[in-house]
Amino acid sequence: MMALFNFKKRDQDAERATGQIEGFLQGFSIEVMPRTAAKVADFRELLPNGTRVYIAHIDGTPISDMVATAKRLNADGFNVMPHFPARIIKNRTTLADWIARYQGEANVKQGLLLAGGVATPHGDFENSMQLLETGFFDAGGFTRLHVAGHPEGSRDIDPDGGDRAVMTALRWKQAFSERSDAKMALVTQFCFDANPIITWSDALHAANITLPVHIGIAGPAKLQTLIKFAATCGVGPSMKVLQKRAMDVTKLLLPYEPTKVLAKLAAHKATHPDSNIAQVHFFPLGGIATNAEWAVANGGATGIPAARNG
């Protein structure tokens, strides 16, 4: 009898976890680059209508390629959010030109503002706050502006491994959001462990930083691919999840899926509805089609619900 009870409980727990993940994945977003987007014949066959699609601007990518990708995705019915990496934007004239081209040619009204992946700025800008201070995004009619969040810290911002500079920047961004007409949120680097994310979001809440958090999650991919990207992107303590998996020969050759980290985040969100954690943002490191198919199959098939457009 006890064995039967335990079996039913496990079944109920699994069903509850599945339902929580499905709810958590609704309204997911995904990131592409012009060169990866060009390989997709029709995004409408992969993603729910209205999905927010970020377009990563890697150093060296021509703005014309970025705008063409944004135009295509917008025409197909997606909410387009191109990156504005401060350190590769030379000056105010360049920024104004990018904004004018995005809006004039691709009807872009959303943007992710971040420092960018280069160590030395190409011109006048070093961080996203300087971009916001130009006033160009307010004048340009942007309805949504996202900025970067760092659950595992950022050595680029705090070389000593602390969080003093990161938290100062977040307080500034919180204050900016309160005087801006645009909706704002934090979008994070991808992580593989829910615990640092939850600890970080709790710290934000304690510091009265109420910006919604869109958690970066690596989509399904080969383990070797994830380890390579994680090392390149400076993923912190959650890298241990991949290292531990790599030591298990029974899992070494199996594709990684983000089920475990999403289940824990979804459960936390279900029991802490006031948490800043709002939505999931996918980095399709194993391919756009693979990630989109997995996300839709696991519950993210309903686009962006109005009530959760955070």
3D architecture notes:
- With 310 residues, this protein is α/β, with parallel strands linked by helices.
- The chain has a single domain (19-304), classed as TIM Barrel, CATH 3.20.20.
- Helices cover 44% and strands 15% of the residues.
- The protein contains twelve helices and eight strands.
- It has an eight-stranded parallel beta barrel with strand order 1-2-3-4-5-6-7-8, surrounded by six helices.
- Strand 3 (79-85), helix 4 (92-106) and strand 4 (110-114) form a beta-alpha-beta unit.
- The termini are far apart.
- The relative contact order is 0.16.
Write the layout of secondary structure elements.
Layout: H1 2-25, E1 29-32, H2 34-37, E2 52-55, H3 63-75, E3 79-85, H4 92-106, E4 110-114, H5 128-133, H6 136-139, E5 144-149, H7 164-179, E6 183-191, H8 194-206, E7 213-218, H9 223-233, H10 239-246, H11 259-271, E8 277-283, H12 288-297
Parallel strand pairs: 1-2, 1-8, 2-3, 3-4, 4-5, 5-6, 6-7, 7-8
Helix pairs in contact: 1-11, 3-4, 8-11, 9-10
Describe the structure in brief.
It comes from Puniceibacterium antarcticum. The protein is of the alpha/beta class and 310 residues long.
Please, what is the average pLDDT? 85
Distance between the termini: 46 Å
Ranges where pLDDT stays below 50 over 5 or more residues in a row are 3-16, 303-309
The Rg value, from CA coordinates, equals: 20 Å
The CATH topology assignment is TIM Barrel
How many strand segments?
A: 8
Structural class: alpha/beta
Q: Biggest sheet: strands side by side, in what order?
A: 1-2-3-4-5-6-7-8
Number of domains: 1
Question: What is the name of the CATH class?
Answer: Alpha Beta
How many helical elements?
Answer: 12
Order of helices and strands: HEHEHEHEHHEHEHEHHHEH
Percentage of residues in helical conformation: 40-55%
Overall morphology: globular
**Main beta sheet, described?**
8 strands, parallel, barrel
Looking at the overall shape, the CATH architecture is Alpha-Beta Barrel
**Strand percentage:** 15-25%
GO molecular function: oxidoreductase activity
Organism: Puniceibacterium antarcticum
InterPro entries: FAD-linked_oxidoreductase-like (IPR029041)
Keywords: Oxidoreductase
